[in-house]
């Protein structure tokens, strides 16, 4: 398994190429069954991203999302591309982030007509909070090429199995009747959302640039090159979102230093192969600190040893490439060569945490060591 902070998937090659341009030194990563991914780091932030092309449709999107999750164990999945806007207030080139995903083709056919049987996936709360923060800050909009000034919207997206390009067809009427609050319509989000749901509700964010209004004008808007323009806007949003999302999810997984665990003795576990025993416990009162606890229980020296072990393991497991591993070890050595009272170790550890932000277990060990250093100062 090769870790990535986030997996980003697209349906179209146009979308893939735009997202790839945001990655620094992307390298090809082949799945054993033939799927081609590229892995690189976002310029500036350095967050590790695995990029894949799913193709059109919910079924292929679901299959490739499942494959990417198993291959890269990401903190989050993002699907980026174009969509049709369903409301006049949603302008061409605007960005829509899905608060909900509707699979609108579910139903039952009875004598008196077709009855809707909707399926809905809601964005996880923390991911939704982060996405709305990125919308408010509008850093992504400042990076949009040209003089465009797109708006980002947070609301439901409808995902089906056909391209909607009519405002008066039976399908258009079906969507208006049963999914009236949907801001945009597309063909992959339901598959992606289902795959993430089946992986312990892994956070997923669907980001769509509006390239047409799904009303019969698609040929005209495509001729005006709204697809590449909408893709460029959505990709800028994703480039801003990924580090905020990954860092926010790492913070969520960090242990609560104010509520240490009380663990009873007398339990015995055996780990074989690459498995590790995280906790051997009978009765636990309060919060449980499990990965990296030596930094709090055994002081700075134990924390350094634990962190060094985690860095080495991550490197051996190909979760840290050689350059990042060497930089992380150098920061750790630099931090520990200074006296804790001087304050410089914390700065080194902050830089180190930035290097490993997409590896929650290692980032947690850095935080534990920083706590121990502060306690020793």
Automatic annotation (TrEMBL):
Entries under InterPro entries matching the protein: Nucleoside_phosphorylase_d, Nucleoside_phosphorylase_sf
Residue ranges of the TM segments: none
GO biological process, one term: nucleoside metabolic process
GO terms assigned for molecular function: adenosylhomocysteine nucleosidase activity; methylthioadenosine nucleosidase activity
Domain Nucleoside phosphorylase: residue ranges: 7-238
Pfam families assigned to the protein according to its UniProt record, in alphabetical order: PNP_UDP_1
A GO CC annotation given for this chain: cytosol
Stored PANTHER family: 5'-METHYLTHIOADENOSINE/S-ADENOSYLHOMOCYSTEINE NUCLEOSIDASE, 5'-METHYLTHIOADENOSINE_S-ADENOSYLHOMOCYSTEINE NUCLEOSIDASE
Protein name as it appears in the record: Nucleoside phosphorylase domain-containing protein
Organism: Virgisporangium aliadipatigenens
